[in-house]
Amino acid sequence: MLKNKGVNKMTENEWKLFLSPYEQAVSELKVKLKSIRQQYKENNLHTPIEFVTGRVKSVESIVTKTKVRKVNLNHIDSDLQDIAGLRIMCQFVEDIYEVVDLLRQRNDFKIVQERDYIANKKASGYRSYHLVIEYPVQLITGEKKILVEIQIRTLAMNFWATIEHSLNYKYQGEFPEEINTRLELTAEAAYLLDEEMSKIRDEIQEAQHLFTY
Ligand code: GTP
Ligand code: MG
Predict the structure, then answer these.
(1) Cα-trace Rg, the chain
(2) Using CB atoms within 10 A as the burial measure, which of 8, 105, 149, 186 is most buried?
(3) 98: CA distance to ligand 2 center in Å?
(4) Would the CB of 82 count as within 6 Å of ligand 1?
(5) What is the pLDDT along the chain (213 residues), one digit of tens a residue?
(6) Rounded Cα distance, 25 and 65, in Å
(7) How far is the CA of 196 from the centre of ligand 2 (A)?
(8) Where is the RelA/SpoT domain (predicted)?
(9) In this structure, are residues 70 and 136 in contact, taking their beta carbons and an 8 Å threshold?
């Protein structure tokens, strides 16, 4: 953390300097992940990446999270793993695992944490595959390793998570139990869509195979 100051005492310019390598990591990774999609397209292959988004956490959310989680102010960059965040959206659940395999093979960063919230969905109904990577950015002062959270999910998982998040934000997470139950059911409905789309794709591919040979 800058000069070991508390997050509350940091000036706008100090925040800008602190967040600058995170901005760099997010924009570099966006380019790299989009290039994976491009390469599949160029080879006329089904791309496991539909689209990629990225963001750096706002100062306001960083300050709130450090307070809620009682994060040591000197360790913000190691204790908050999602200051830099990337999201990869896929068409099919199988694509998610293909993307994870691709990322495991890379040598431009190191995976430091993996959480499969698809095999083990969260109590809310949330599903996604989470990776935390250690990404080296090259600064004029030398190399700095930045933690980046990558969430990989289908379009249906993203649809659910986006709306659930905005509802949660509006209601400040204080839903009545009945609403939680209904939201969990909508997550299951979204997952049924994913499963059905995969089945339909498999059947079409099988039919095409029979037709070609
Ligand atoms: P954080 O303190 O938020 O980092 O929680 P964590 O470290 O226990 O969980 P993890 O890092 O694996 O997941 C946190 C992120 O996943 C959040 O910032 C959200 O983007 C997403 N997420 C997790 N659970 C939910 C959920 O129930 N609903 C939605 N919409 N997103 C979720
Ligand atoms: Mg986290």
Answers:
(1) 20
(2) 149
(3) 23
(4) yes
(5) 555 567 778 999 999 999 999 999 999 999 999 999 999 999 999 999 999 999 999 999 999 999 999 888 788 889 999 999 999 999 999 999 999 999 999 999 999 999 999 999 999 999 999 999 999 999 999 999 999 999 999 999 999 999 999 998 777 768 889 999 999 999 999 999 999 999 999 999 999 888 876
(6) 21
(7) 30
(8) 54-175
(9) no
From 50, 149, 177, 206, the catalytic residue: 149
Is the CA virtual torsion 116, 94, 164, 130 positive or negative? positive
Query: Cα–Cα distance between 77 and 144 in angstroms, integer?
Result: 11
One-letter amino acid of 195:
E
Among 128, 162, 166, 171, name the best residue to mutate to test ligand 1's pocket (greatest count of ligand atoms within 8 A of Cβ). 128
CB atoms within 10 A of CB 125: 21
